[in-house]
Design goal:
alpha+beta; three-stranded mixed β-sheet; 7 helices; 5 strands
Amino acid sequence: MRKSFNCLICLSIPLRLLKKYVIRFSLDAVKILFTFVFMESIRQRQVAKVIQITMSEIMQQELTHLLDGAMVTISGVRITPDLFTARIYVSIYNHKQPQTILDTLDKNNKYIRGLLGKKIRNKVRSIPQLEFFKDDTLQDVQNLEQIFSEIKKKDAEIEKLRDADEN
């Protein structure tokens, strides 16, 4: 019977491979390591969701004077296992220099954390420290779409050349 270790992403890793690549760890240590790498606790997800919803409301209602006309969306929140640090991923639109908006959010971190604390103080024990990061996933998607459209154009040109050669 083949022993294997199942992790969260539904991969079955044979035990012999784990022993081969993770020589210094016991199997229990490997299980713990895989659990922390691939998995968030239920409480982490709950707190992250509350922070994401509340931060979205704060951005729309109370931080318009700081955002300088930019449209800012909270695309995701990741929270550390100890629930003391929240990494907030923001997408910034309609602004020439999105980095200045990110810098403004970092400068006003204590003010924003205070606003967040007023809204979620009954839901969490301690208000986490906030770290803001720019989320570039939409830009990456647009770049990929542009690359794919260029590939389609080149394929169409090659197909036209092939059809012309056949005739």
